[in-house]
Amino acid sequence: MNTPSGNTISAAELTCSLLINLSRNVPQANMSMKAGNWDRKKFMGSELFGKVLGIVGLGRIGKEVASRMQSFGMKTIGYDPITPPEVSSSWGVEPMSLEQLWPQCDYITVHTPLMPSTVGLLNDDSFSKCKKGVKVVNCARGGIIDEAALLRALESGQCGGAGLDVFVEEPPADRALVNHPNVISCPHLGASTREAQARCGEDIALQIVDMVQGKKLVGAVNASVLASTFSAESHQLIKLGEALGLVLQLCKSSKALSNVHITTQGDAMKSSSGYMTSAVLVGLLSQESSCCPNLINVLSQAKESGVSVTQSHCESEGTSCAVEILTGDCSYKAVGSVQGGAPVLLGLNGFMFRQPVALTGNLIIFKAAAGPQLLSSVAGLLATAGVEVLSFSASADGAGDPWFCVGVSSLLPSLDVVKSSVQDVAQLSI
Prior knowledge:
Blueprint: H1 8-24, H2 26-34, E1 52-56, H3 60-70, E2 75-79, H4 85-90, E3 93-95, H5 98-101, E4 107-110, H6 124-129, E5 134-138, H7 147-156, E6 159-164, H8 176-179, E7 183-185, H9 194-212, H10 223-227, H11 232-252, E8 259-265, H12 273-285, H13 298-304, E9 308-314, E10 320-327, E11 330-339, E12 342-348, E13 351-358, E14 362-367, H14 374-384, E15 389-394, E16 403-408, E17 423-429
Parallel strand pairs: 1-2, 1-4, 2-3, 4-5, 5-6, 6-7, 8-9
Antiparallel strand pairs: 8-10, 10-11, 11-12, 12-13, 14-16, 14-17, 15-16
Helix pairs in contact: 1-3, 11-12
């Protein structure tokens, strides 16, 4: 297990201290004094007041850094593909794209996880778009800033200084960055405070107690291993939750998610509410570009993104799970169950399917005006695109156009193929 929130304050404070030291050359001046020098002019600094701080990654630590540096009178702008703009705005951080952020910053600090999409996030191209003399800080993970590109930017003056607590290789064998006069470096001290270690100790003790008592597994590193210990029935319910989340993720499209409510029904689901909620969120958040959710970390990711998650259980003879999400003024709802050992979709956005839809394989989901020619029309369009229809499910009559689901041999290269005959069309592979 790990304790993701235990070192939040310590990491944020170290980030702030590096920003301050970069602006006033404190470490360099200190070393000069110890060498017997008195070089006031050599260490001319600049105020943080009125400067622009770009925060890449607006999770727990990014938020804490923003609030602290705002007290210095800095303008804080930021980028995060997960956190809704209205949430970061409420912290006093102006949200924007990376392309908008780079040229505005006097200082940049990164607070993202290290994953394929964030490796080398700050590189030669990024630095070329920044102000000349921009200063950067990395207290997150080594590799988010391309170290070779950073050295080139320091040598050219495009980067005016760097504060580094983390490196690709620790300790770094190549000392070029560490030895550069405009670099302040630390040996990965982000969590190295007495308070952070005490919090981590308390958190891990509570997490182990929860694990032994069969409660939620917050902070488990080996999530996939723990998931494999669930019973066969649990596996089926987890697949159902993830599948329902995927369906609703397609419904909401790019709209920012604000609320999720999961309602379980039946005795079989009474004890599954914890991992069912996590499974649904995994499906909902799995398509985000820089998000790697699993059953363990997804609740924390949802909270950091400002998503409100609630759960309830109803006694019932049948077994089902209903998921309702809110995105601004729009709501979407999916109802599913497990039949024959596989997840099925029973209803979507107020319409119940005449036959349960197997949530497996390649599916195309859409709304359309019901009519005797619909199936032949859609099948013809798909056949023209070289796609075979494997199944066809229609929802019962209701208010408005009904929903349909088509099982296909392969996904379409473009949904434009069928848009002439249907509406609100989306496709997914489960």
